[in-house]
Amino acid sequence: MSIPYFKSNHDWEAFTQIFDSQWHCKRALLNRVKDDLFPGYEWHSLTPKSMEVINDIVSNLVYEVERQFKETHQDYKTDDDEIFIPYRSFKENVLEALNEALTPYELQYKNECDTLACADHLTDE
Fold first, then answer.
1. What pTM, to 2 d.p., does this model score?
2. What does DSSP assign to residue 4?
3. Which of 19, 39, 100, 121 is 20 to 30 Å from the Cα of 45, by its Cα?
4. SS3 sequence, 58-110?
């Protein structure tokens, strides 16, 4: 989804208010998980992988909590909620797609040659 072309300043302000609210909520949740997993650590001292794990935990929990909340608070449910898709990270989805695309190729050529022999026949036209 992209940022819409706003028809008025009022629409822009409404959009940014929602963004600010969502950002404050997400930041609070990220800090809460960071502080539980890495007490006393500041963000700048964490590795990128640690930050990624924290973000994945928060995203997964928000997804699960929202689903459970809507199950117990039916007045929040929408038609889209009937379609349950388990949360997975973008990275997991890309890896799965790449594996599915590469597997037929690997199976086709894996048994035909070893690594050194493959290099020879791949250059032959």
1. 0.60
2. P
3. 19
4. HHHHHHHHHHHHHHHCHHHCCHHHHCCCCCCCHHHHHHHHHHHHHHHHHHHHH
